[in-house]
Design a protein that fits this description.
By secondary structure, this protein is α/β, with parallel strands linked by helices. The chain has twelve helices and 16 strands. The strands form three sheets. It has a nine-stranded mixed beta sheet, sandwiched between helices. It has a five-stranded mixed beta sheet with strand order 2-1-3-4-5, with helices on both faces. The longest helix has 15 residues. The radius of gyration is 23 Å and the shape is elongated.
Length: about 375
């Protein structure tokens, strides 16, 4: 009989292993094989199309997997995709017991747990379940709702401003905070900004200062005003630049920008207020297998997402700087609210000191929260 405390301890190790890799659009999954209280195999899902975490851990364990316990943060897959079903690999190795963090939010072929139990394997589900659900919240949202997991990121002064009245924002925060922001880009599938940010800051939207890969660079640009010499267009990167524009964008601008290598255009409808429909924009990104989207501004884009309640997580870097100017650029310029009770509240807030700056992170209280119930996926 394995103690519950041991199951929790080993599952926490599997959760740490799961954080490695870059499996998008697949979920982060970690696995351990434990024999006689000793970890004999560790695995994580490194990238889409590669071996799943369970298989990596089982291969590492080898013959020691027979009669052992497999810990998996997500229920093993039970379907044939780019790799074989993990359930078959488990059955072939003689594993005696499987401990699962949480069920798959949208299994392609249901019945993994039932299949293992039918073969005489003891299966325990729900160890460190909330942490396991949080680990795959982005995947769960994208595959079941057709929308990516959206993180609103900003660097602000103590009085909540992201730029001076002239638009200058370099630099509000120090190098430690900026390095952390680049790690956030590396962990994202796409980074999204509005055309105002492009015209004011001419950002590259690449990963610098830290090791990593560039995300898809996306601009919400209704009239395709992005300059032909903008850094995010001319900067050499393995990641393309995607310009989301309105149906009535000038034909000349379309032709000029679409002719540039590495630049892609996509048409997005306008909302009833005449601006680009931000939900339609996010659905376009999800359709392109963007699971995690990092929104870096500006104020109007932040405001539009907050107004539409499309933000799942918020990451705000606060610097010990005061502008004292009511005309300086705020974090968000949306319709706003009249009652404090209607404000966006964060839960599970963490506070991190980065040099002289402080990072506040938390999930939106009303953000997508997967409850652990399997659902029909929107994509195969």
């Amino acid at each position: 009989m394995v103690a519950r405390s041991d199951d929790v301890r080993f599952m926490k190790s599997a959760l740490r292993a799961a954080a490695r890799g870059r499996p998008s659009p697949n979920p982060h999954v970690g696995a351990l094989v434990v024999a006689g209280g000793v970890v004999v195999g560790v695995g994580h899902h490194a990238k889409a199309g590669g071996p799943h975490a369970e298989v990596v851990a089982l291969v590492a364990a080898g013959a020691r997997a027979r009669g052992a316990t497999l810990y998996a943060t997500l229920a093993p897959c039970n379907h044939l995709g780019r790799t074989g079903p993990c359930t078959e690999a488990i059955l072939a190795t003689g594993i005696a017991r499987v401990v699962i963090g949480t069920r798959d939010p949208a299994p392609h072929t249901p019945g993994a747990v039932e299949r293992l139990r039918a073969a005489g394997i003891e299966v325990v589900v729900g160890v460190e379940e909330r942490a396991a659900q949080r680990l795959v919240a982005d995947f769960a949202k994208q595959i079941t709702t057709g929308l990516p997991f959206v993180t609103l990121k900003a660097a602000v002064t103590l009085d909540g401003r992201i730029a001076t009245r002239s638009g200058d924002s370099r630099w509000i925060t120090g190098p430690k905070a900026r390095n952390h922001a680049h790690r956030m880009r590396d962990a994202s599938d796409a980074v999204l900004v509005g055309i105002g940010t492009v015209l004011a800051d001419d950002p590259e939207l690449t990963v610098r200062h830290v090791r990593g890969r560039d995300p898809l660079r996306v601009v919400l640009d209704s009239a395709l005003r992005t300059p032909l010499d903008a850094k995010l267009i001319r900067h050499r990167s393995a990641a393309p630049t995607l310009l989301l524009h309105a149906p009535d964008a000038p034909a000349a601008n379309r032709a000029a920008l679409s002719a540039i290598p590495g630049v892609e255009l996509a048409e997005i409808p306008r909302s009833i207020t005449g601006v680009l429909d931000v939900e339609a924009a996010l659905r376009e990104l999800a359709r392109r297998d963007c699971v995690r989207v990092l929104v870096e501004g500006g104020a109007r884009l932040h405001g539009a997402l907050l107004d539409a309640r499309l933000v799942d997580r918020v990451a705000v870097f606060v610097a010990p700087v005061l502008l004292g100017d009511g005309d300086a650029v705020p974090l968000a310029r949306g319709r706003g609210i009249d009652a404090m009770a209607d404000a966006l509240r964060l839960r599970d807030v963490s506070i991190t000191r980065l040099g002289d700056d402080v990072l506040f992170e938390g999930d939106a209280a009303e953000a997508f929260l997967w409850d652990g119930a399997p659902r029909r996926p929107l994509r195969a």
